[in-house]
């Protein structure tokens, strides 16, 4: 499966992501510069973590205007998979592929830690690789990871089963303990925790492996 990883000035998890998709899973992976307008034959688009454009204005606010993100929106609207992690999740909300917003953490501190998550659904490619596993542990590293949505949006997310991951112990004040959501069609996933940082056994954890295994068909 051909994977494309969007690279912005300030991205810092793009190579981590490529190590997982190409190094561990052996999938052809292309780094797509933010100014590129053509995704080519890419089947899965990943918007990685980091500090796109230095996080000026607010996280993801400038990245939303990049040509590569315009192509990513078209890719998503065609029903193809798009994964946004950390800053990538922020960008997906800014560009309108996912509802809500990511704002400053509750205590206004950058958090770098490992957190326990519940898997709310197992019937999507993103989570089918976990089988019946109910809880996983993944790293987080963010200053603006508090998920916010108004009451109506939150009700829609819950009613339509769009919440995919929840924090067991809420580290940042996210409404509903939300750590990751998908769009109504299920082909776009945004999440603050980093599965790519917990997919290689040499790093001490493989709890992120299941997400890529399900998505890439392993």
Structure description:
Part of the FGAM synthase complex composed of 1 PurL, 1 PurQ and 2 PurS subunits. One of its GO terms (biological process) is 'de novo' IMP biosynthetic process. It is built from 5 helices and 11 strands; from the N terminus they run E-H-E-E-H-E-H-E-E-E-E-H-E-E-E-H. The protein is α/β, with parallel strands linked by helices. The longest helix has 11 residues, at 14-24.
Walk me through the topology.
Blueprint: E1 3-7, H1 14-24, E2 29-33, E3 44-47, H2 67-77, E4 82-85, H3 87-94, E5 101-103, E6 111-119, E7 135-142, E8 146-148, H4 151-159, E9 163-167, E10 178-182, E11 188-191, H5 209-216
Parallel strand pairs: 1-2, 1-3, 3-4, 4-11
Antiparallel strand pairs: 5-8, 6-7, 6-9, 9-10, 10-11
What features would you highlight for this structure?
11 strands; Rossmann fold; 218 residues; two-stranded antiparallel sheet; alpha/beta; globular; 22% helix; 9-stranded mixed beta sheet; single chain
């Amino acid at each position: 499966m051909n994977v494309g990883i969007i690279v912005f000035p300030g991205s810092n998890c793009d190579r981590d992501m490529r190590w997982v998709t190409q190094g561990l899973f052996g999938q052809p992976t292309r780094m797509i510069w933010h100014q590129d307008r053509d995704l080519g034959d890419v089947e899965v688009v990943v918007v990685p973590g980091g500090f796109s454009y230095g996080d000026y204005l607010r996280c993801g606010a400038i990245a939303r205007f990049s040509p590569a993100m315009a192509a990513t929106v078209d890719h998503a609207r065609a029903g193809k998979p798009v994964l946004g992690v950390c800053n990538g999740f922020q960008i997906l909300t800014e560009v309108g592929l996912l509802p809500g917003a990511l704002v400053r953490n509750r205590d206004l501190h950058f958090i770098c830690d490992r957190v326990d998550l519940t898997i709310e659904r197992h019937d999507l490619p993103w989570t089918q690789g976990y089988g019946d596993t109910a809880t996983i542990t993944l790293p987080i590293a963010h200053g603006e990871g508090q998920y916010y949505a108004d009451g109506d949006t939150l009700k829609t997310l819950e009613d339509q089963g769009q919440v995919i991951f929840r924090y067991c112990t809420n580290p940042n004040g996210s409404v509903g303990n939300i750590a990751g959501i998908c769009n109504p069609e299920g082909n776009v996933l945004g999440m603050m925790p980093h599965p790519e940082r917990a997919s290689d056994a040499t790093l001490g954890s493989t709890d992120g492996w299941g997400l890529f295994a399900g998505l890439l068909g392993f």
